[in-house]
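Protocol step 4 of 5: obtain the predicted structure for the target chain.
Materials: sequence only (see below). No template structures provided, no constraints applied. The aim of this step is simply to have a reference model before the mutagenesis design in step 5. Sequence pasted as it appears in the construct record:
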Amino acid sequence: MHGTTIRHDNRTQQSLARLEALAKLMDGAFVIPGTTIRFGLDGIVGLIPVAGDMLAGLVSTYLILEARQLGAPGWLIARMLANAFLDTAIGAVPVVGDAFDVLFRANMKNMALLRRHLEKKGLRVGGVVIEGEAVRAA
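Step 4 output (structure tokens):
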């Protein structure tokens, strides 16, 4: 689809923030103590045979549908679907799949793809800058 238009409004920024938060929750919300290894709910629900990986796959599909509504072109959607399919298919394999879920991070990869695409199209993607001072309470 050539000439895909991307909304440059507040709703787009809110959608991106929501998708970023969901991707982080699924792929990197927690840290294994004493290491730098991050994991998310995908790695946890993936421990439930079949149903856990299906649930994680549905969340990945939701992220992709939202990306489509934000104007992502077909080639990008196909790439995102391939990441989600790979994560879901290999994640369904006992033990090996659970480790793969922690290391592959399909949702974070998909959000990076979407972010890069939107930036190339001229949409400033990033967090909100809040001015002020940080004060640590003792």
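Step 4 remarks: The mean pLDDT is 85. The CA atoms of residues 48 and 94 lie 10 Å apart.
Proceed to step 5.
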